[in-house]
Structure formats: structure tokens, C-alpha cells
Input
Amino acid sequence: MEAIFLVGGKGTRLHPLTLETPKPMLKVAGVPFIAHQIGYAKEHGVTRIVMAISYKNEQFLHYLGDGKGFGVEIIHAIEDQPLGTAGAIRNASRFLESDPQQPIAILNGDILSAHDMREQVALHNQMRADATLHLIRVADARPYGSVPTDAAGKIEDFVEKSDNPPTDFINAGCYIFTRSIIDQIPAGKVVSIERETFPALLAAGNPLWAYKSSSYWIDIGTPAAFLKASRDLVQGQFHSPVFATSTTMNYVHPDAHIGVNVQIDAGSSVGASQIGGDVLVEQSIIGDDVVVGSGAHICASIIGDGVQIGDGAHLRGVVIAGVGVSVPPNSRQIGEI
Ligand code: GDD
Ligand code: MG
Output
């Protein structure tokens, strides 16, 4: 099966991490997030992926190449200007090889999901749907696409990000589309799948179906969610085919230099960095080429590549990124994560 990955967003909620690196290229448990998603797609029968890229697209081209290193074929569809979610799908569809009646998987590029995409495809085929959306139930649907269905699971409406969502079943960002439907999206213009395409298809009576699941799911788009996803991967709450859980329940890059009496805890992840003595790293992510001075405490925080943390600094709930950025010794940085 062919897939389109939507990976052209700017990831503004993850600033300053995403000022230098696009969201799907941020490392989670030692590898760029997108590698976990490619692994997932491959496990569910995807053999060819068109990457819909725009923001900092050269980083995707460089890391993914033609996909050989990942065991799939990868083609890159570059948008000079971001075309929105449906515009990006339409732009990528030029590179699809599937027949008009065949199913295409479309994935938001910031989702970890354990649902069975093969079952989703089977349901799509069985219902002869134009599109089949993976839905999950959340406590607060306001920041998502709220998607009411009838008792059989046929989609009745699609309401993107509203104060009064009609249901707590939300769009989980994984669609199976019949190829011919994608080709009907207008080409060369900005179109939102959530705000334009889905409502228009429903108004025209096209059959859209829901595949509901209650399996593990997270959107990594905010610092708190990014930390949680990383911890869940590292601790094995979510299985990724490209990551093996260690018995320590933390991840430490083999080239990291770890000083004496260092405590790394609670599903933390430490890249190829230098950690001084008597340091505590708890529930945190430390990137590559970071220097952490002795006696520093880093809790519930994300430290980007190339940052320097002074001796004895205490950090809690903060995101710090930018090569060469330094945190003064013995300072206190308290944030909101
Ligand atoms: N190529 C391309 N071009 N990709 C884009 C563009 C674009 O112009 N705009 C956004 N994307 C990609 C992002 O990179 C991301 O992977 C995906 O589309 C979704 O964008 P987000 O910005 O993360 O959207 P969201 O999280 O607020 O909402 C979406 O996901 C929710 C589930 O997590 C919507 O699809 C909601 O309906 C859904 O509930
Ligand atoms: Mg998102």
C-alpha cells in the first residue's frame, strides 16, 4: 500500500525546539520521530511513502533519501509555500502509483498510534468508503477535530477545533482514502482537509466511515505531550519497531559521557552528550552535544542539541534550545511543563 505523510507544518507549539528542526525530525528515544512512524507504517503493510514536505524540507531529503535505509520507497513532494493539509495531499498525489479504486494511507506526521491500520483498511474496503478516519475518544475534544457518527460508525459531521465539540470522539490523524477522491481536491492552492475537504465531502453525501479504537495514541505537538511520548517509548508503554527498551527504562546514547554519581530516571532520554558528576536527570530529554555541568538538576524538561547547562543549575518544566545557548551556573529555571 502507498502512504502520504503530512510533515510540512511549522510546529510552532514546540518553539524553540522547532526553530532549527522540523517537528517530525526531532529525536525521540534516540531517532528522529519520523523513523518511528515509518516503522509503524511498514509494519502495517506500507511499502511506498510520499513525504509532503515544506518547512525545512532539506532536513527530510538528507535524512530519508530514497528510503532504502528504512526498507521502504520514499518520494519527496515539496511545497514551495505550505499548501495546508489537503493541498499538501493533492500535491503529493502526483507521485502515487496506485489505481483510482485503491486505498491510500494518510498520516499526520506527529502521531504515535498503536491502532491496527490493517483493520482500518479492511473496514474501508468492506464499507466501500471514500475515506475512513481513525477516531479515538479524549477527555477534552476542543483542540482536535470532533467527529460524530451514527450507531453503525458512518461519519455525520466534522468540526475542527471548536469551543463546543459535538462529541468527544476525535480525528486521530490517520486516514484511508480511496485514491480517486484525493485526485478531486483542487490542485495548486491552499486547502484544509479538516475545515474544507471533510465538510464538503459530507455535504455532498460521500460515504466517510469511522474506525474507532481505544489503543495507545498521542499527538506530540506540545512540550508536555512530546515529553510524555518520549517517556512512553523509552519505558515500553508504546512499542516502536525501531527502538528496543533497555532494562534501565531510560535511554542513554552509547557515545554519551556520564560522570560519577549521576542519576538518570523516569524514562529520560540522553543523547551523545556530556553529563558532569552528581547530576540528576528526571523525566527529561537531553539532545546531542549538550554539556551539563556538575551538580545540575534537570526535571521534566527538554534540552535541545548543543545547549550548555552551568554547574549546579536547577531546571524544571522548561524547554531550552539553540546551539550555544547557555544556562548560567547555579541559576533556577522554572517553566510550565
Ligand atoms: N505538507 C504539509 N503542508 N503538511 C502540513 C501543513 C502544510 O501546509 N500544515 C500542517 N501539516 C502537517 C503537520 O506537519 C502535521 O504533521 C499535520 O499536518 C497536522 O498538523 P498539526 O498542526 O499538528 O495539526 P493539529 O495537531 O492542530 O490538528 C490535527 O491533528 C489532530 C490530531 O492530532 C487535525 O487533523 C485535527 O483534526 C486532529 O484531531
Ligand atoms: Mg498535531
Observations:
- The mean pLDDT is 97.
